[in-house]
């Protein structure tokens, strides 16, 4: 049986670093990723999508947020979508899953809130397939949420496909040690031909016949090389390892970079490097940049113009941590202030900065930068 495996859509996710415009685009692209999954299913003639939890980012989403992914899936009525709760959207009494059912659902969308086997019908060869869902009814469930899969009955010879959300093999995003912890050999214990997992945001195997799909739209700077943006096309085979292929559906690329700057040439080199890192479409890249070193007032102004206001304006987002970027100031830098109270304040800050007072150093650099911008020097 062929199907798509996805998870961790986290619809409604907030991005605290983002301005309102960027936040809106990032949230919309999480919905667009669902549409890309539907289009991929059509292209591959795959009639089934398994969503392994964390469909929503919170347990009580707003009404609009609750309905948005349903409307995306509704557009692909010939495809059956099977969803389970995750640790971000657990099945709570009167919670979002019950709210969703009260609204009514299209016939192609199936919410699984009970740990009981469900027939998926027969594959093209006539072999019957069964879905074995594990259900989280709280954010941090002690014990293994997949333990019930061992005893779920299915007809002899049927494909057994597990669907679960949690941390297998001792890794995952759940901070509570021992919560939602899935046995690394669950697929063997439960006689599964495939175990579709959610929680880890990168596509990666989690043991024999077990995979994390990752989030279809990358959502953080710390995700590394396997940080999401894909969906898995799976061919499950009775008694044999599945055939798994990753297909990219995400739009945005998230990067971290660091630089140590002491001169204008190094600022120019950083500009070029960030553009290369972002790729052909800078508007699809988000970069978190950490800078250290020491810059004169002139070079700090160059940094602001070329990095923050230059390439930074073309990127979807540029976060800059410049807490380790110090001022390297001389008489020429202070001279732009002339004489008077500003000059006196700058000299006082310079003395404190020389004594390793980072706040004073930052204040001095900012004061001189503003003075340069005002004077046009």
Task: Provide tags for this entry.
Mre11_N; alpha/beta; Calcineurin-like_PHP; 26% strand; six-stranded mixed beta sheet; 9 helices; 2 domains; DNA_Repair-Maintenance_Comp; exonuclease activity; 17 strands; nuclease; single chain
Give a verbal description of the structure.
With 377 residues, the chain is α/β, with parallel strands linked by helices. It folds into two domains: 247 residues, 4-Layer Sandwich (Purple Acid Phosphatase, chain A, domain 2); 123 residues, no CATH class. It has nine helices and 17 strands. It has a six-stranded mixed beta sheet, with helices on one face. Strands 5-6-7-10-12-11 form a six-stranded mixed beta sheet, with no helix packed on it. A three-stranded parallel beta sheet has the order 15-16-17. It starts with a strand and ends with a helix. About 1% of the residues have low confidence.
At a glance:
It contains nine helices and 17 strands. It is α/β, with parallel strands linked by helices and 377 residues long. Residues 206-225 are annotated as: Disordered.
Please state how the strands of the largest beta sheet are arranged side by side: 4-3-2-1-13-14
- Portion of residues within helices: 25-40%
Uncertain runs are 172-176
Mean pLDDT: 89
What is the 3D shape? elongated
CATH superfamily of the largest domain: Metallo-dependent phosphatases
CATH class of the largest domain: Alpha Beta
Structural class: alpha/beta
Domain Calcineurin-like phosphoesterase: 1-97
InterPro entries: Calcineurin-like_PHP, DNA_Repair-Maintenance_Comp, Metallo-depent_PP-like, Mre11_N, UCP033093_metalloPase
Region (Disordered): 206-225
Keywords: Exonuclease, Hydrolase, Nuclease
